[in-house]
Amino acid sequence: MRTVIVGCGRVGAVLAERLAREGHDVTIIDTNTEAFSRLEPDFPGQAIRADGTDEDVLRRVGTDTADWFFALTEGDNRNAFAAQMASETFSVKNVVAKVNDPVRAEAYTQLGLATICRTRLLVDALSQYAGLAADPGASGVRQVERHHDHLDDGATPVGAGHPEH
Amino acid sequence: MYIVVVGGGKVGYYLAKELLEAGHELVILEKNAARARQISDELGSIVLNRDGCEGKHLAEAGANRAAIVAAVTGDDEDNLVMCQMAKHHFDVPKTIARVNNPRNEDLFKHLGVNEIISPTRMVLGAVEQDIPVHELLHLAQLKGGEMELVEAQITESSPALGRKSTDIALPEGSSLFLLLRGSQVQQIRADTVFQAGDKVLAVAKGDAGEAVLRRELIGDDAPVGSPS
After folding, report:
1. What's chain A's average pLDDT?
2. Using one digit for the tens of pLDDT, what is the confidence trace for A82-94?
3. Contact, A109 vs A142, CB < 8 A?
4. B72 reaches A (C-beta below 8 A)
């Protein structure tokens, strides 16, 4: 599977490593070359210094043929922007945006964009750890609300359209 | 009318100033504290020193009762997200976004921003009026510069439009030889009739030859800025 990741922070770098080691064709983009030092020296994917919110850049790295697109920069808006460009302009089927502001995460989920909200995830995890019941109205894990291809080939496909089976 | 202006840069500042003078009620969201102070010194306490992109700050600014949200920061991603939040989360009837990269215009339109203002596109439009669109294109020099391989595009105003190639009087040493029509390439024959959109490859001998080709194929009313 082809995967494009925008943002080589901690999450982006670790995810890129992991997917690449499991055989994915991974391209990771960051505006800062130093960010790539988070990758192992023998990272098997491609690391490209460029602006991942620029349409020309995304075209150049072959976003139109990507199976997965992860927007994981430090900026919520950059992520929401890049992710919508991936899904609207390049018709990528599986797009996830990291949106740490819960209000925006909620709003984008309603617009049909799969979001992952670190704030919510941590609050949920910590609350659970402290023995509180899960907050019924809010979930940090909004990425599973849409039907999409499963990343892990061994997993049971969720919904339709699993290309590997 | 209540208007939320996101971004207190030059555009946001002058926009707010004009709107205030016209009697509208408004608030500017500006995330830079120094800039926010500067604007409130000039325009009064209409500035919220907040990152407009944070959902709760938009609520604080009263986005839910705004008639218009105008996102005019220098960052396209911020402008898009602001407008989307305003529209879908706060039901603002009209959203206006400044688009800095003209390539992003379609995406903005597609994602439901009501009005798109692109300063880049506007300047580009003004610049392009002065760029000769249909000049003779110099492709290569032949015989040490004595001759030139050129390309000319036939337009609706070309003197050569609808004429046969043999009707075009060319000086000695110059000739028309290839025609690019759509995706087809063909040799120019005696019975070739020129159509609008055709690209003609020709060899021009010297400045005189070029002048004739330009006159016959492009026309005398060459746009401003073309070399004589």
Report:
1. 84
2. 999 999 999 999 9
3. yes
4. no
